[in-house]
Structure formats: C-alpha cells, structure tokens
C-alpha cells in the first residue's frame, strides 16, 4: 500500500513538474520566526509553517523543496518556522488573517496547533500537514499529510541495527515534546528487540549533545549502537564515540552532506532517508492541483516520502544531490 501511494503521487505530479524547468536550490538554514522567504508570484499564495529550529539543515531542504515548486508553478510561497508550539500556532493565525490560499504545516505538537488549524479550515483554507502529526492530520481537517510513518521507520531502523550485530542501543531525542521523535525510538525498540535507552539532548546546543553522548558511552560500555534522529546529532554522536574511545557505531534519521561524508568514511552506518525535499515540494504541487482542478492525493491516507535507507551501497548516488541541498 505504501509504495502504491508514493507511485500514484509521483505519477500525478510528474506532468505538473514538466510545466517548467527545474531550478537550483536557494534555501538557507531556518531562522525561527524571523525567517521569511517569498518565492514567485501568482494567484495562489501558500504559507509554509514548520517547527524547525534555527540552524537545522534538515528544514533548509524542506524550504528549498517548497521554493522550487513555487518557482516552477508560479505560486507565492512564504516560509516561517518556530520550534515553540505556541509561537508556531501564532504563525498559523497570522496566515489565516492574511487570507492565504493554502497552509502547509508540520505538527510536532499537534494539540498545541489544533485550534489554529481548526480556524484555518473553518475559514475555507486548505491545509496540508507534513513531517509530523500524521495521526491527527485528518482529524484536524487537513486535506492530506505528506511524510513518513515514524513508528514504521523506527522499526525498520531497529531491525537494521540488530542485523548489524548491535546488542544495546542509545536513542538520542533532540527536541522535547516532539511526538514523532518518541515514535521513532518506540519503533526502534520494537524492531531491535534488545535493550534500547532514550537520551534527551538539546538540538540548539551541539557541544552539550556531544558531551552527553560521550558521558553515557563512558559510563555504559555495553552500548554499541547510537541511533540519532537528526543529521546534526549524528555528526555530534560520531565525534562523541571517538572521544569516548567507544566501539559503538552510529545510525541516523535524515540526510545531509555531512552525513553523506560520514557514511563514506564509515563513521555512520546508514541514514533513514525520509526525502524531506518532497515534504516541501509536493504540498505546493498538491495545493496548486486542488485550486486549479479540485484534485486530491492520498485518498485519506498519508502520501509517504519514506523510509528509504542510504548506506555505503548507494551513498555515491545521492551524494551530489545532498551537496546541492536537495537531500
């Protein structure tokens, strides 16, 4: 079912993508609520509102995807982000007051956004959720969700770590209150079948991330696998392992140029790739199709962008795209 949804979405969107030539990435790292970017002009205005934190390269790729689609389809797109759920809700409220033609929103903390999303739907604004909160997407009135199922992705990551011979796993959660991250660790625990311990860190403090992981590895030498849920954390974890003199190995969720290099160097076993470029790109296309032709995708089920896996067997194939800010 998952593969058919993705293929169906790809076929439907391919014709639209041919309307204009592809353009290169122009995104930069997210900067909380101060980060505004307008791309192209047209009858359709879309507000993309995520929970990305400042300096998180993952969300830069999402932003690039949205901007590329905007340019290709002559859609007006503004991008804003804030890691604080209350502030993110206010961004949604602002978009509703501006009477935008569509809203794309990630829901790391769905309950905090419910009232704002309800108000958008009541105002007749189509909403597409991305990345997090798929379980609440339809309930809140969104027309679709684009992303990966976190529990399933975590389970598959756990299975791969078990197959690699790991016996005790540390799952590093970098955003407190992010339900999707807990789902990843819970899924990994199910797939791994062995001892899995969560470690809470703060994504905005890379030095402390490395120190906390290093301290844990030094105090518990039985840990032989570290599952990061973010590419920046993966790089910090790899450094912590070297600093601790540990034999543990890192796997991670999500991909960027640093993780690609780390996979090539053998410092990271694999990355779970949810192809976040598509999480920015596809909702813009979907809203354009809905406005122009009343088309919808997914049939009430998530349009899945992952999980895929990048390791030494295929890392060279995606390395160029990661370097260009699209993977």
UniProtKB/TrEMBL annotation:
InterPro entries in alphabetical order: Bact_Solute-Bind_Prot2 (IPR050555), Peripla_BP_I (IPR028082), SBP_2_dom (IPR025997)
Subcellular location: Cell envelope
UniProt-recorded name of the protein: Sugar ABC transporter substrate-binding protein
Signal sequence extent: 1-20
Keywords: Signal
Keyword Signal: yes
Family per record: Belongs to the bacterial solute-binding protein 2 family.
Domain Periplasmic binding protein residue range list: 46-288
Main location: other
Keyword Cell cycle: no
Domain of life: Bacteria
Organism: Lentzea kristufekii
Record Pfam families: Peripla_BP_4 (PF13407)
């Amino acid at each position: 079912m998952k593969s058919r949804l993705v293929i169906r979405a790809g076929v439907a969107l391919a014709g639209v993508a041919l309307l204009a030539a592809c353009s290169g990435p122009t995104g930069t790292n997210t900067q909380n609520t101060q980060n505004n970017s307008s791309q192209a002009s047209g009858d359709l205005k879309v507000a993309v509102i995520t929970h990305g934190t400042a300096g998180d390269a993952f969300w830069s790729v999402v932003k690039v995807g949205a901007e590329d689609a905007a340019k290709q389809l002559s859609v007006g797109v503004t991008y804003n982000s804030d890691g604080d759920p209350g502030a993110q809700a206010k961004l949604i409220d602002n978009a509703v007051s501006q009477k935008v033609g569509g809203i794309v929103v990630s829901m790391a903390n769905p309950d905090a956004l419910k009232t704002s999303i309800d108000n958008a739907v009541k105002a007749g604004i189509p909403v597409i959720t991305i990345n997090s909160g798929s379980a609440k997407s339809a309930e809140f009135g969104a027309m679709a969700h684009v992303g990966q199922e976190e529990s399933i992705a975590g389970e598959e990551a756990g299975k791969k770590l078990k197959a690699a011979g790991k016996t005790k796993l540390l799952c590093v959660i970098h955003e407190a209150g992010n339900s999707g991250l807990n789902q990843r660790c819970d899924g990994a625990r199910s797939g791994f079948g062995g001892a899995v311990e969560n470690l809470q860190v703060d994504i905005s403090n890379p030095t402390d991330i490395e120190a906390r992981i290093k301290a844990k590895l030094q105090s518990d030498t039985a840990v032989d696998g570290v599952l990061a849920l973010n590419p920046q954390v993966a790089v910090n974890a790899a450094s912590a392992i070297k600093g601790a003199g540990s034999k543990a190995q890192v796997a991670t969720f999500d991909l960027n140029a640093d993780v690609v290099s780390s996979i090539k160097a053998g410092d990271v076993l694999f990355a779970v790739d949810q192809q976040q470029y598509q999480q920015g790109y596809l909702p813009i296309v979907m809203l354009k199709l809905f406005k122009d032709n009343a088309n919808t995708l997914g049939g009430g089920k998530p349009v899945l962008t992952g999980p895929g896996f990048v390791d030494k067997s295929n890392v060279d194939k995606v390395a160029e795209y990661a370097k260009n800010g699209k993977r």
